[in-house]
Every structure is written in structure tokens, then in C-alpha cells.
Design a protein that fits this description.
Elements: E1 10-11, E2 33-34, H1 43-64, E3 66-68, E4 76-79, E5 84-87, E6 93-95, H2 98-113, H3 116-125, H4 135-148, H5 150-153, E7 158-159, H6 165-179, H7 187-205, E8 208-209, H8 211-223
Parallel strand pairs: 1-5
Antiparallel strand pairs: 2-4, 3-6, 4-5, 7-8
Helix pairs in contact: 1-7, 1-8, 2-3, 4-6
């Protein structure tokens, strides 16, 4: 709640200390409809919701380095009168070390630029690859990263309703499992669950999002944190170096 501050789109219920204890967290009441019931909204509204969901995900990873990793759609309540989303259920939050995000942001950058050499190099830095994989495994890994990165390099705005990213990655999984020489880095499990959930929510809503533009803004602010945020964007985490 503190990290999002006065964000114009997202709301986080305040904690009620006098009704909370060490094991029970009581918060203000959140109003709205779960995202799964928002398919009947006008296309423009759905596009805006999806754009904000992706913006939040990028903020959590690259600005706050603190993420709610449960993408259950019931944890996002849309209130049509105020056109805002209330965020619920923070039992699955986790932080990310700067060393991890420094490399991960460059993997996405490389995917957005379709720079295959950089994807492989940064994947080794992240320990997704050991450096001793077969050429076939490296090729499958590249396909998977480029599929997951398609929202950032494909036609803009990216039409999540028409994409087949999930099916494509599922088709590569058997080859990836056979060719892996080690497990993925531990932070990636929760992160990819959240990213996959956001992509599925955007696909369910049929959202069209300028993903590359959103990522470019966060990328610039990540490496140049002194740059002032654009109007309507929350300030950077005060604890950020």
C-alpha cells in the first residue's frame, strides 16, 4: 500500500490495527467485481485494465522488487464507477534481489530486441542455463523466451486475445525438460506464475496493450532512477539505491 502510494488506478485496503493480531490481518472492505466477470465491458475499458495489470507487474518486479505472486483473478476487484482495481490477498508476496532483477530485465530487453546472443548470455548469468547445454536445448530455450517475450516485440498494441503464447510454450515443455542440466533459479517459479497469470487475464479480457512502450518506460527508470516519473505514475521506492 505504501509502495503504490497515490496511484490513480490501484487501491490497496488499509489495515485496521485494532482488529488485527499477530496471525490475523483485518483490512478495509474492498468493492468491485472479479476480473473474470469483466469480459462484457467495452473494448477500451478492457484495454485499459490490461495495460494497468501489466504496468503493475512490471512495477512490482523492476521498481518495488516486491511482488504479490498469486495471480488468482478474484484478488483483483474492478469497480466500474471509479474505474479502479482494488488489490487483495498478500499472503504470497516475495522480494527479489537486485542481482536477479539486473539480469532479468536484460533478458526481457533482449527478447524485445530479438537479440538471441544476449538472451543466451543473460540466461547463463541468471542460471537458467549452465553454458553446457546442447545446441538443440539452447534453440528450444530461445524459442521459449521469444514466445514469452512476444508481447514486447510483436505488433503494438499487442492483442492478447489473439495470441497463443501459452499453447506454444506448453508444446516446448517436453523438450525443455529433457534438455535441462539444472533447475531454474528459485525466484523464477513465483515470478513466472505471476507473469503467466497476468498474460492469461489479459487474454481472457481480450486486451490490447502497448507492452513494449510500458516496458521501455520501466527500463529507462530502472537504470536511471533519478529520472522524474511521468504524471500519474507512482514515485520510485525510497529504499532504491
Amino acid at each position: 500500500r505504501s509502495l503504490l502510494g497515490s496511484d490513480p488506478f490501484f487501491r490497496v485496503p488499509g489495515v485496521v490495527p485494532e482488529l488485527s493480531s499477530r496471525r490475523v490481518l483485518c483490512t478495509e472492505w474492498g468493492r468491485g467485481e472479479p476480473l473474470e466477470r469483466c469480459r462484457s465491458l467495452p473494448q477500451e475499458r478492457r484495454d485499459q485494465i490490461c495495460s494497468e495489470l501489466l504496468r503493475l507487474c512490471l512495477l512490482e518486479l523492476f521498481q518495488f522488487r516486491f511482488m504479490q505472486t498469486d495471480p488468482n483473478w478474484a484478488n483483483f476487484l474492478y469497480e466500474p464507477q471509479s474505474h479502479t482495481v482494488t488489490l487483495l490477498d498478500f499472503g504470497a508476496c516475495r522480494g527479489f534481489e537486485r542481482e536477479f532483477t539486473d539480469h532479468y530485465i536484460e533478458v526481457i530487453r533482449a527478447a524485445a530486441d530479438r537479440d538471441e546472443d544476449k538472451i543466451l548470455r543473460k540466461s547463463r548469468d541468471l542460471k537458467f542455463l549452465t553454458g553446457f547445454e546442447s545446441q538443440a536445448m539452447e534453440s528450444v530455450h530461445l524459442q521459449a523466451v521469444l514466445l514469452l517475450g512476444e508481447p514486447f516485440w510483436g505488433p503494438q498494441p499487442f492483442d492478447f486475445g489473439a495470441q497463443g503464447t501459452a499453447r506454444g510454450v506448453r508444446g516446448l515443455l517436453p523438450q525443455m525438460l529433457r534438455g535441462r542440466l539444472g533447475p531454474p533459479p528459485e525466484p523464477s517459479y513465483a515470478l513466472h506464475r505471476k507473469l503467466g497469470g497476468v498474460f492469461l487475464a489479459c487474454a481472457h479480457l481480450g486486451g490490447r496493450v502497448r507492452c513494449r512502450e510500458l516496458f521501455q518506460q520501466l527500463y529507462e527508470r530502472y537504470w536511471h532512477p533519478q529520472s522524474p516519473p511521468k504524471p500519474g505514475q507512482p514515485p520510485r521506492n525510497p529504499g532504491e539505491p
